[in-house]
Structures are given as C-alpha cells and as structure tokens.
Amino acid sequence: MSEKLVDMLKTAGFDVLSCMQCGTCTGSCPSGRHTGFNTRRVLRDARKNKAEVLSDDDLWLCTTCYTCQERCPRGIPITDAILELRRLAVREGFILPEHRKVSEMVMECGHAVPLDEETKKKREELGLEPIPETVQKYPEALEELKTLLKCCKFDQLVAEK
Amino acid sequence: MTKLSLFLGCIVPNRYPGIEKATKLCFQRLGVDVSDLPGASCCPAPGIFKSFDKATWLALASRNIVLSERLGRDILTVCNGCYGSLADANMELKRDPEMRASTNNCLKGIGMEFKGTIEVRHIIEFLYKEFGPERLKDYIARPLDLKVALHYGCHMIKPSKVRNLGETECPIFFDELVEATGAKSLDYTDKMMCCGAGGGVRSGNVAVSLEMLEHKLACIRRAGVDCIVNACPFCHLQFDRGQLAVNERFGTDYSIPVLHYSQLLGLALGFSPDELGIEQNAVQNIEFLAKVYEISAGLR
Lengths: 161, 300
Hints:
heterodimer; A: elongated; B: 2 domains; 4-stranded parallel sheet; 15 helices
C-alpha cells in the first residue's frame, strides 16, 4: 500500500484529521463495552497511517450501529469511515474466514442465508409456497447475479491470497 | 396510494416465513397493493458487501431495485438491513452520475438499466407516514393486552442524515405504532442499543455478538415484559435463536418471546397466532402463546 491511509480516506470523503480525540465514539460504542475495540484509536492510527489498522481483526468488531457517527461532535461520519477502512483491508486480503463463507454463499445461491428443509416445512404450514419468489426459484435470475459478480471481479477479491 | 413490491431478503423467506405471511396479511387488510418481487436476491447484506466492495454492493442492490422499477412499484422492506442497503444504494445511484454510469455499465451485461424511478420504503416508516397511529387504530379488531420491549434496531433510523426519521437517541414514532395495537411499550435500560448482530459481527465474532445480546436481554427482563418487538428479521433472529445460544453459553434461562411488528399488528388486526407463524420461533414460551391465543379468541 503506497498511498497514505489518511489520503485514501480523504478521497473517499472522510476527513479524519478533524478528529480531536475526545473519545465520545469510544464511550458510545456498544461493542467496545465488551471488547478491546477502541474507535478513537482506530481513527488516530488511521491518521498516523499505521498499516496495522487494516490487518487488526478488531476492525471487524464494529456492528455498524452508527451511534458514534450520530454523536461525533465534529460531525465525522465515523461508521462510514470504518466501512471504508474495511474495504481497504479487504483489498489487502484481510478477510475473516467466516465472512468469506457468507460471500461464497451469496455467489453460489444468491442469498446470505439459504433456504433449508426445516423452513420449507414451516412455509407449507403457513400456506406459503415451499420455495419463495426469490432468486432461489429462478435459475435465470441466479445467472444474472453471477454475471454481475463476475463483472465486479468479486470472486477474485474474496479469493484467498 | 403507492403500489409496493415486497422485498423478502434472506432471513424472512428462508428462516422466518411467518414474517412474510404476516406482512402480506396485514397489508391486504389495510388495503395496500403489495405484489411479489420475483427473482430478487440478497439485498446484499450491508455488513459483508458494503464492508467488502462498493461496486459489488451497488451492482447487486441495483439489480433488485431495477426489478421493482420494471413493475412500476416502490420497494417495501421488512428488514432494517435490507432497507439500509437498498435505500442507500438507491440514493447514491440517484445523486451520483459517475457511480450510476459505472453501475449501469455492469447492469448492461444482464440487459438492465437503473433509472432511479422508485423509492425504497421500510414497513414502519411506511405505516407511520401513510397511516399513522391514529388511522391504524381504526383497523384494530383485537386490542392487545401486552407489555412490550420495543427494539428499533440501528439501520432503520441511522445514519439520521439520510434516513430523515428524526432524532435517534429517544425516538417515539415506532412506540406510537406499537401502542396503536393496544400494547404498552415499556422503557428499559439501553433500549436504543444495538442487538449485536450487525456489521458482520454475528457471523464473524459470535462470542462478542452474544455478549452484547446478553446485556440487552438482561435489561429487557428487568423491565418485565411479555415480549420483544422488532422490525428487522436479523435482530429477530439474534433475539430469538441467539437467546438459546446465550442460555447455552452463559447458563441463563431467558425465555422471552420475540415478535416482528408485522406479527404484532397481525394479532391486533384479528389474525390468529398460527396464521402469523408466531409458534415457529425458536423460543417456545407456553405462557405467552396461551395469552396470545386468548387475545385472538377474544377471551381477554
């Protein structure tokens, strides 16, 4: 990664340099209550251009609840900036194996949570069609989805590097 | 009134079909024209796709939007995640010509074009704006004698700058819709806190996700409610299936029933618990089921 993190964030519309390190974000973070996840430190390290921000698994402890973003006295879109950092991390190959599995599921069947036999039965009990009116029912729709994913080179992005 | 297409997403049709059924029954009763949206896929899940790659997120979301553009219908979502993903993509593609051009370039490969002709709606936002609690009361056949812990969930109201549903620390519009059914929405500690499922945390860091959930459940139990009400199947899944996982992990004995708002409203409109899939939850609370059957039969 040759370009500076802070510049990449700025290009994407996130000016983390206006952060005054007040810690409102960290104090508001529901995930941070239970983990070592420290939003303020993520922003500080990003502006110091520390590459570890991207490789640290803590980046994936944010539930994207947007409380920090709503409360930031500087109006920094913090959660959106965290999402941008994640996208940069993914480009560097930092992906949790569980998240890779979810992506593969969508690539395979068009859903992050696929239909199972138990739910088919529940659907029938309710008088619904066992297969819902989604991509699962229409093979041509699934083909469309696969074409789009290929167009975006998504399979290469999530492939193990 | 606006014509809608029902966007199912993943968890509703594939885990909690009761929410699909309840939504259809409610909207039929309210006289709103809601069609299916054949061929729709995952929204795609914001926690993963928005965290991974913007172009892919927009491509998949725009395909779902175009399916509804072709029907000339606004999209109705019953999930905060689907709403966040589709409404954000719709907004970004409408306002950013560059992004729209590159997404359309991709869509061309499947003979589609994003035109920006429809809106993405959320069931709660729709009911509040198009009906409102007062008008909704006219439809109530069985006022609900229930005490409820309401969970708004994050992405229905945040980021507030683009959602435009008012302030996010102490909103009341959803509570008003709950109380329109006759139920009482009780206050509880950390009511506005996240359920712990979003952002890829439930899939990627299940231990953390369950710790956050356990905190919410403890707060809700202290409030002494009959059930939890939500408007997001991912929160619903976290509260329902997650509750059993919390019990296993922490040795607790939570047994708090969980209803999606469509199911709560369905009961009040006079549909029976089995039509609404309320018994299909993982949490099986016999006392609660007896109570809702009594309400449904007009016995209380």
